[in-house]
Amino acid sequence: MQPSPEQSPHHAYPDHWEADVVLRDGGTARIRPITTDDAERLVSFYEQVSDESKYYRFFAPYPRLSDKDVHRFTHHDYVDRVGLAVTVGGEFIATVRYDRIDERGRPASAPADEAEVAFLVQDAHQGRGVASALLEHIAAVARERGIRRFAAEVLPANNKMIKVFRDAGYTQQRSFEDGSVHLTLDLEPTAESLAVQRGREQRAEARSVQRLLAPGSVAVIGAGRTPGGVGRTVLRNLLGAGFTGRTYAVNRAFAADQGTIDGVPAHRSVGEIDEQVDLAVVAVPADRVPEAVADCGEHGVQGLVVLSAGYAEWGAEGRERQRELVRQARSYGMRIIGPNAFGVINNSEAVRLNASLAPEPPAPGRIGLFTQSGAIGIALLSGLYRRGAGLSTFISAGNRADISGNDFLQYWYEDPDTDVALLYLESLGNPRKFTRLARRTAAVKPVVVVKGARHSGSTPPGHAVPVSRIPDATVSALMRQAGVIRVDTVTEMVDAGLLLADQPLPAGPRVAILGNSESLGLLTYDACLAEGLRPRPPRDLTTAATPQDFRDALAQALADEGCDSVVVTAIPWVGENGEAESGDGEVLATALHAAAAAGPAKPVAVVHVEIGGLAEALAAATSTVALPRPSTQPSAAATPPRAGAATTTGPALAHTPSPGAGSGTAGAATDAGSDEGAGAAAGTDSGPGIRSGRIPAYPAAERAVRALAEAVRYAQWRRQAAVPGKVPEFLDDTIDEPGAVDLIGTLLGPGPDPRGRPLAHDEARELLGRYGITVRPTLPAPDPEAAVAAAAQLGYPVALKTTAPHLRHRADLGGVRLDLANESALRRAYGELTELLGKPAELQPVVQAMAPRGVDTVVRATIDPAAGAVLSFGLAGAPSELLGDTAHRLVPATDRDAAELIRSIRAAPVLFGWRGAAPVDTAALEELLLRVSRLVDDHPEVVSIALEPVVVATQGLTVLGASARLSPPPARTDLGPRRLPNY
Q1: Which of 19, 515, 581, 805 is the most buried (most CB within 10 A)?
Q2: Which residues pair with 181 in a beta bridge?
Q3: CA distances from 708 to 173, 385, 445, 602, 882 (A)
Q4: Comparing C-alpha atoms, which of 341, 351, 350 is closest to residue 238?
Q5: What's the pTM?
């Protein structure tokens, strides 16, 4: 909304203050500045506020607003007087206003830095977190306008408003004066205020997802009159899943007396439905979607799943249609999954929602799955179905114009029905937020991600998101830092997800291997070594091994304290006639189930080759075949049973729900006639076994070991994350942050170029010096005499280097001459340099004092507009430039991040005494990394730093080269008030 001509002309309408927010109950609202065009809205809003709320606002009965009041509350200069409104459906539901005041409480202008603030929330919307969201936004506006404190007068009986101020997390003072509570809030964000803001964000966004996944009623808009079609398919799937709520079919083409479709009430519009509709599934052509959205919004629908195509995936026109769809839905307080979505599934027994086009609905389970691609979603559902895996929830978001993977991470973080989160992502709309949420979620449950469109260099069709310039290898490193399990394919994602959902986390990398094939055991052994695990020599049970032999061997391996996990390998038995016997898969599965249930809680994976029924039986959560208790001694091989030789009391139960940690029992059955505990399936957290009776099976050793290795690395990250790193306090004593602020302001100047500016060598040295980073000085040498004079000033021995861009840091091209011990050596080197490479004016030679011998490294920090500040480290030259051997961490980096950074490159042994060399001073290197991290974190104007080379010696280090670039600071949306993205 733009201001009328009457609005103050010298302060333009601040459209960047407009924001869509998610409220406490999961609904959305819009916050925007109040303009002179809002007079009628303000009066209508005030008429719907109770007398009590009016009294709390004005400290006296105030039944209506006068014309003078309306003028005052709608005319603002957007600097000293600001008003914001919260709107739903275009109408006000709350307002807030601040007026700048001086120390005596009188109206003032800058440089006065205090303002009086007052809120008014419509009674029907109190309790939804409206005032808390408004406080975040009005505080951000005030800080932007140079206001540092808010003052508020609140009646003692107005407990709700006092609580809003008290719980905001800002530093505040309270006093009781003249019958009211006087509050003063310092608006500088604090760790507490940021934590409060993010906690509210998590609860609100999780609630908004819950409203979509657990509706009490669903309307399918576009359900056809005849079988077939998208809408009718969704309706059929809803009914087939046994949805526990009410279902309606909506199509404007229905006859007035249609009555029912597939046994559910049929209506021509949502407005005709007598009851509240919580969720609408929209399956109509794109040009009819706005009509459907309006029908839903005007009748209280809480959320939409838009299956319709024809949006951003169709180009510029479709992209604008998509933006308008989001604007329209949010104006009614609704959130959207889609458009171009495949649908949603919630397997909770209390909901049983299948509002999707899934041809093979998944069984209930403990895995949450989010995908941005319908085709990938179909493939994943099919793969999970075939392997007997179950899902808690499934979401295919299509163009994900509104709700994204970030929202579902918020939901899964505290969802008791989800133990593992799997995400297929083609773009990251807000990488900073994704990393933050993934780190928090990964601390309590695994997050496995496949990132599509890694190397295309462009955003997938339909995804209007900020483009990140950082390479995919960096994205992968940052995900690993956040505890995300990054895999390359959807097959690997399913492999890892199955193991993580059904098995405990390994305590370490030690792997026991056992099976009836020496060759398959050796392949598994090699795969373990390739993945960085520590396998024990494979135990060959020989091809004559029986299921009882497998059970005994697995029990012994699990009981071995030198083993952290077990991989069982199995091939078909060979009968007396030389033919493979592949029908005993259920018997073998029962034996493995029994051993795993009775043994210590360690992960078990099975690699099998063409054993019929084994994978399906292993996926079952109970076993039904009675077997003797496992022996603690190796058993002699016996004649293998033939297919069907064992008698069972019933078939293995596939697709049984598998509980996660803390979810109680799995309904495990005890084998009839067996000894105590024999054959009992795992599934109770109180017992020693695994989390469910399921054991993941893989058709190849490499796949099983890769999944196990991901679990080992994730478990190690979890243990480390339990004790977070910190920034050492000693840095504070040697950092001049105010001095750096002044220097940056001087270097940028009053009207900085938005493109930024590179710093000269001396300017970079001065800025780095403010943070305790010393750069060895260089002196220009435009001719031999200047070079000699520079060397005399610096002291021999010296280095002579060219600084021309095409020769910088290229000793291999002869642009660097080292250890020049005297004047004659320097003159000779100068002559050779200019004769070989060009004139001094072109080479721009410099002289620098020699540094102690060591390992040349490079330290960089860059600001990516989407991902934020990234700290990088590698060895200088070929390792980092040619081989890409560079490690990355998000800023701010902790002491643990710095230590991991230098140890995670492949060439790290060079720093720690490779081939008999003396180890270098890694402590000094870690301190340097922390200082660089602190510099770019404290000053977002520093958009890039490169220290190259940094020579790390056995004691200390020397920074020989440094460059930096300054730019006006980019917006930090992750630190501002809560808002939904607008792509």
Answers
A1: 515
A2: 154, 176
A3: 54, 21, 16, 11, 31
A4: 351
A5: 0.83
